Amino acid sequence: MAEFLCPENSLSGSLPSELGRLTGIQELVLSMNSFTGSLPNELGQLTSMTLLEIYRNSLNGSIPSELGQLTSMEELKMSRNAFTGSLPTHIGLLTNMTLLEIHRNSLNGSIPSELGWLTSIEELKMSRNAFTGSLPTQLGQLTNMTEFSCYRNSLYGSIPSEPGQLSKITSLNLRENSLSGSLPTQIGLLTQLTELSLRSNSLDGPLPSEIGLLTQLSGLWVNDCFFSGAFPSEIGLMESLQILNLRNNSFSGLVISELGQLGNLQELDLAVSPPSLRGPFPFDSLPGSLGYLNISGSPGLVGSIPEELCFLQKSSCSYGDDAQCYIDFDCSSLLCGCDCDC
């Protein structure tokens, strides 16, 4: 038997150790069932297997190190279970693997440096676990990776410069950790990035001007951190930006006029804390796609409000999962020439 495909049924109970006898199997798909218990060590005998799908079950216990014997493995999908313990270092032996999904479990401990051996990996999804420690510098060796998500863990320490070698990456999500220090200038080398989320960390210092090199970026979330200093004017070069969220940082100084060049914006949040932004309102006219604008707590802004801003709440637009429009700003120092309640 080369394939055993049984997803999305109502199967329950534990996985039998006899699965280890299917030595010729290449694809084993048991996802979206109600299996419980631990993974049998005997799965490590299925050395011809290229695909193992067991996501969305209720499996628990530790991930057996015997999985490191599955050297033909290309896709390993184990998300949305209740696995505990550390990620075995033997996972690094699966050098043919292009996809590893272990998100939404209860895995803990540090991220093993042996993941740097997975040089064929394209998608690495480790979010919503309890991983601790720092990001291993060896992740910079994964030069074929296009997506890395490790949000909502307990990672700390600085973001290493080595991930600047990930020239193919399009999505990097490290939000909701405890990462600290400055954002390395090597971030500007990730020129294929379309989504970068670093929100809800302890990152500080100025945003490096190299961030303006990310001209493919459509979403940038650095809100709820401790970034400070002036906005880099290079943000105006990021003409693909649709979402820019800088809320709850300590940026200061002039609001850069270059924001007015971002004609594709759908969502813009500049509500900094403490309020310290000043200068002219950056838009002579608003992008037609804009559906969310938050510049609340910015009494230092001066100038005139574009007339269409007054009617933003009445326009028809959508973003995220909800069709709605939103505006929140302090216009005490701004001039409004339209008939509204400003």
TrEMBL record:
Keywords: Leucine-rich repeat, Membrane, Repeat, Signal. The keyword Signal applies. Pfam families: LRR_1 (PF00560), LRR_14 (PF23598). Residues 164-272 form the Disease resistance R13L4/SHOC-2-like LRR domain. This is Leucine rich repeat. The lineage of its organism: Eukaryota, Sar, Stramenopiles, Ochrophyta, Bacillariophyta.
